[in-house]
Amino acid sequence: MSVAAPAERFRWLLDATAMAIVGVDDTGHIIMTNRQADRLFGYPPDALVGHPIEVLVPEAVERAHIAYRNQYLLDPRTRPMGHGLKLSARRQDGTEFPAEISLAALETDDGILVAATVHDITERVAAERDRERMQAELDRSRRLESIGQLAAGIAHDFNNTLGIMFGQVEVLLDDMDELPSLDTPDARAELRAGLSRIQEAGKRAAQLTQGLLAFGQRQVLHAEPVELDQIATEAARMLSHSLGGRVTLTTELNTTGRRVLADRGKLEQVLFNLVINARDAMPQGGRITVSTESVPLTDEDAHTVGLPPGPYLSLRVRDTGTGIPVEIAERVFEPFFTTKSEGQGTGLGLATVHGTVQQAGGTVLLDSRVGEGTVFTILLPALKPRPAPPPPTPNAPEDLSARRAAYRILVLDDEVELRDLAAQLLRRSGYQALIATSGEDAVEQARTTDVDVLLTDVSMPGMSGPQTADAVRAVRPSVQVVYMSGYARALATGEDVVFIEKPITKASLLKLIDGVVGIRPA
Ligand SMILES: Nc1ncnc2c1ncn2[C@@H]1O[C@H](COP(=O)(O)OP(=O)(O)OP(=O)(O)O)[C@@H](O)[C@H]1O
Ligand SMILES: [Mg+2]
C-alpha cells in the first residue's frame, strides 16, 4: 500500500466533501477549487484557477462584489456573506442560481487567503416560494370566506332596505290614485316625505355595498401606520350585519388617533376572526365587546408577556359565551385545530390571528372562564402619537419642521462624512437625528432612546445593515427601517425593504422619511 503525500491527502479530503469550496487570494483570484465547486459551476477540473472570482458572480453585481471583497479584507472574519441579502452565483453557461456563501480567512506569508463555501439553495428557495404562495392563497381564501359571511349579513339588511323602498313606492302610488288633487301643499309635502324616505333607504343600501366592496378589494399589501380605532370602528360596522339578532356588538374605543404598524387588510381579518369566533361561542346569544386601550408595558409586564417594554396598544374582543376549557385553550392557536363540526370551521382562524400579530411585533393573550366567557387581547407596539397639525397658513408653503420635530431618526453608516451629512440634512429640516458609529452602537442607542426610524447603510464592516435592523427591532419593535446604499439594491430583493439610493439628496431623503413617518403636506 503506497502512502500518499500530505498534499495529496489534503486534496482527497477536500474533494470528498459535499460542499463546493473555492479558495481566493487577496487580489481576488481563484487559487484552488474542489471537485464539487467545479461541478457546481460547470467547469472542467481546475479550469477556474487563475481567474478572478467575479467570473462566478452574476454580471449585475460584479462591481458590488469587488467592493464587498475589498471591504471583507479589511476585517476578514469567518462569517456568512451578505447576511439578510439574497445572493446568487453564476455558472459557466451564464445561468444563475441562488446561493448561500460563507467565508473563512487564513493569514499566510503570501497574504490573506479566503475560502468561500458555496451552497446551492435553489430547492430551498423554491420551497419557500411555494410556502409563500400557499400562505397567500390561504389569506385569500380566508378573505373570500369572510366576504361570504359579510355578504350574507349584508344581504339581509339590504333586503330590509329594499322592503322600505318598495313599501314607500306602493304608498305613493296609492296616494296618486286616491288623493283628490296632487296640487295642494299637503299632498306635495306628503309626496316629498315619501320620496325622501326612499332616497334615505337608497343611500343606506349604497353604503352597505360600498363597505363590502372596500373590504373585498383590500389587497394584502404591507405594513403601514394604521389607526387602531378606525379599523375597529369599520370592522365593527361591517360585522354588525353578520351576528344575528341575539348577539350585540359594542365598541369601547380609547386610542383615538393612535397608530400601529400593520397591514390594514390583515388586521381587519384578525378582528373578523375573533368576532366570528365569539359569535359562534354564543349560540343562545350574548354580548361582544371590542375595545382598545393604550398599554405602557413596564419591564416586568413586558417580561411576563414576552415582549420588549414600551408603549403598546391593545385590541380586545370579549364575549359572554361558552368559554374555553384549559385543555382546549392550549391548542386553539394550532393550525387546523377546531372543535366545530365538519364544514363549520377549518381551525385556521386563530392560527392566522397569531401569525399576523406576531409579524407586526405583538402578541395574543387568551383569558377564558368556562360558562362565563372569553377575552382575546392583542398587543401591538404603538407608534408615537401624531403631533397636531399646525394651523394652515394661506399661500405660504407649509413648514413641516414642527411636525418633523416629533420624530427621532438614528443614522448609521461606517463612513463618517456620509452619516454626518444625512444627520445634518435631517436636523435642518426639523427632525431629531442621532448618529450611530456601528451596528452595536445603534442597538445600544435604540435600547435607551426612543427611536422612530433607523436609517442605515447596507454593507458595513462588522454588523451589516440588515443584521443591525433585526437587532434594533428586537429591542424596539416599532422602529421603521430605511436602507441607504449605492449598490445593494442589486443584492437585496426583499419586497418590504425601503431603500434610498446614494448619493442622497435632501429632497429624496425628506420625501422618503416624511412618507415613512406619515407626514404629508396638508
Ligand atoms: N371566543 C371563543 N369562545 C370559545 N371557544 C373559542 C373562541 N374562539 C376560539 N375558540 C375555540 O378555538 C377553536 C379554534 O378557533 P379557530 O378560529 O382557530 O378555528 P375555528 O373557528 O374552529 O374555524 P375557522 O376559524 O377556520 O372557521 C374553535 O374551534 C373553538 O373551539
Ligand atoms: Mg374561527
Automatic annotation (TrEMBL):
**Positions of the PAC domain:** 83-133
Which reaction is this enzyme known to catalyze?
ATP + protein L-histidine = ADP + protein N-phospho-L-histidine
Which CDD domains does its entry note?
A: PAS, REC
User: Per its UniProt record, what Pfam families does this chain match?
Assistant: HATPase_c, PAS_9, Response_reg
Which positions fall inside the PAS domain?
Answer: 6-59
Q: Where is the Histidine kinase domain?
A: 153-384
Signal peptide start-end: none
Modified positions (4-aspartylphosphate) are: 457
Subcellular localization: Cell membrane
Keywords, sorted A to Z: ATP-binding, Kinase, Nucleotide-binding, Phosphoprotein, Transferase, Two-component regulatory system
Q: What is its EC number?
A: 2.7.13.3
Occurrences of domain Response regulatory (ranges): 408-517
According to its UniProt record, where is this protein mainly located?
membrane
The cross-references to InterPro entries, in alphabetical order and at most eight, read: CheY-like_superfamily (IPR011006), HATPase_C_sf (IPR036890), HATPase_dom (IPR003594), His_kinase_dom (IPR005467), HisK_dim/P_dom (IPR003661), HisK_dim/P_sf (IPR036097), PAS (IPR000014), PAS-assoc_C (IPR000700)
Matching PANTHER family, A to Z? C4-DICARBOXYLATE TRANSPORT SENSOR PROTEIN DCTB, SENSOR HISTIDINE KINASE
What's this protein's name? histidine kinase
